[in-house]
Each structure stands twice: as C-alpha cells, then as structure tokens.
Amino acid sequence: MENKIYKPDRQNALLEKELQALRSEYEKQQMTGEQIKQLQQTIREVGKMEQNKINQTRNQTSAWKYVAAVAAVVAAVFVILPNTSGTIAHAMEQIPIIGSLVKVVTFRDYEYESDRNMADIQVPEIKQEEQVENSTLQENLDRTTAEINAEIQEITDNLITEFETNLKNEWGYQDVVVTSEVLATTPDYFTLKLICYQGAGSGYEWNYFYTIDLNTGERLQLKDIFKEGADYITPISDNIKQQMQERMDADENVYYWLNDEIEEWNFQAITDETSFYLNEKGNVVIGFNEGDVAPMYMGTVEFEIPAEVLEGIRK
Length: 315
Fold this sequence. Notes:
By secondary structure, this protein is of the alpha+beta class. It has 7 helices and 8 strands. It has helices at 8-27, 33-56, 63-80, 86-93, 96-99, 135-169, 233-250, and strands spanning 102-113, 117-128, 174-185, 189-200, 202-213, 276-278, 284-288, 301-304. The strands form 2 sheets. It has a 5-stranded mixed sheet with strand order 1-2-3-4-5, sandwiched between helices. The chain has a 3-stranded antiparallel sheet with strand order 6-7-8, with no helix packed on it. Strand 1 and strand 2 form a beta hairpin. Helix 2 (33-56) runs antiparallel to helix 3 (63-80). The longest helix is centred in the middle third of the chain and has 35 residues, at 135-169.
C-alpha cells in the first residue's frame, strides 16, 4: 500500500486551518486588543517557522511526517504563549483543555532520523491539575491515571525497542510515529487518543482510547455508560451498518466489509472490547483500526452514534 501524499497546497490549507482554529479559540478570551495582537504575531511567527520546515521536507512521501509538523505548530504555540505574557498565560488556564481536572504533558520525546529510518515518538502522560476534596475520587483518579500512564509507556517502550532492534540488525526501511490528542475534556469526561503508526514499505495505523469518568475517577468501559441489562450492542451495531452503507452510497471510493462475498469478513457487531470514546457532545464514538472493518487503504475509521439511537438506555 502506498503512503498518501499531501501536495503543497493541501499542506498549506491544513496548516492554516490549524492556526485559524487556535486564533479563534484564544480570541474568545477576555484580553485587550494589544494582547490579542501579540498573540496573533506569535502564532504567525511559529507558523512561518514550522512552514519552513515543511517546505524543506516537501518531497518526503510520508503523510505522517506532515502530520507531525502540524502537531509541532500546535505544541509550539502552547509552549511559547504562556511565556510571552502573564495575562495570556492566565487566559489559557480558562480553556478547558488546559484548565481541567487532568491534563496531558509529554513524558518522553524519542526522535531518530536517517536515510532509511525515522522515529518520532512522543509519549504522553496524564497528570492531575489539582487535588480534590473527595478522598475516594482522589484515590480512584490516582489509580486510574497511573494505570493508563503505565499502559502507554509499555506500548511506546515496546515500539522503541522494536525500532532500535531493527536499526541494529539493519532490517530495511522503517517509520514509527506516535502522537496523541485530547478528544474531549468536559466536567464529566476526559478522553485521550494515542495514535500509533508503523511503516516498512507499507504502513499500518492503530489507536488507543482512554476515557476517564471525572465524577468517579474510573476508566470507562462501554458497558459503564448504559443502564444495567440494556442491549446497547444491537442499536450501535445496526447504526454503524447504516452509516457504512450511507458512506459507500455517497462516495464510490469508500468501501466497508458489509456485503462482501467473503462472509466472514463482513462486519457483524461490536463487542464490549470494541474501542470507543465520548466526544464533547457526550455521544458515543466507535473506533476501528486499519483492516478491522474495511480495506487497509481506508485507514482508521470512526462512527459517531447519534444520541437518539441510544435514547432510553444511557445512564
């Protein structure tokens, strides 16, 4: 499978979209006109700096290297801005992703690049912003964050070990990228997505989702968000099949294993172990890795389940 190539105009459009989202988010804060100008100038400077890096590597065909560059723009803005103004730093604390009960920091940043090998592995770690008065909640949060952090470190340590072993043995070409994204941070839930990619000729992407119930401090399982005894497997599975068919009808390039001649390939139903998260609207989103429910070229796919589909069985 060939890696997807983002052309320069596509790169510029995506980069501008990321920067515009940052501008809009920060301009919502109560800052003076002068502070907003300073903020916008900083974003422009960071954007120019990272765009130069992108231009230097434009001929590289790995879309993941471009994704990493865009992520660097976002990360650099969040690192630089608090140091430019005390008022801006205070304003950033009012943004939910920064000022919530828990936050994500970079625990380890492993990088390597040569003519034949590239690794960019950023290991996230969940940290609490503040202690809570409820001792049971605090104990649960401590345990849950420790368990998630340990799991993430094990995953990334294994990828680094495999990468270094392949380096030592000089086994062809390889790309390894790990990054993360906070998908939701509300008064009730926090969701972190760990995004992993390995490439050696062809590439494979897979994701991990970690959702914490901030009211209990527990890591959520799919069954936890439904009433006891409720059948949630059937309505979710049926809605996913419906969305699959609608997407295929709308775009001839989209294909899911729904009505395939090889019956055992066809998607039948989710299980309690199927990956999921709750988005900012509180809706259930089901995630599948490459090759789970569609050909590899479709990449990882997600299906947001409308609230009305699960009405009456949600807690």
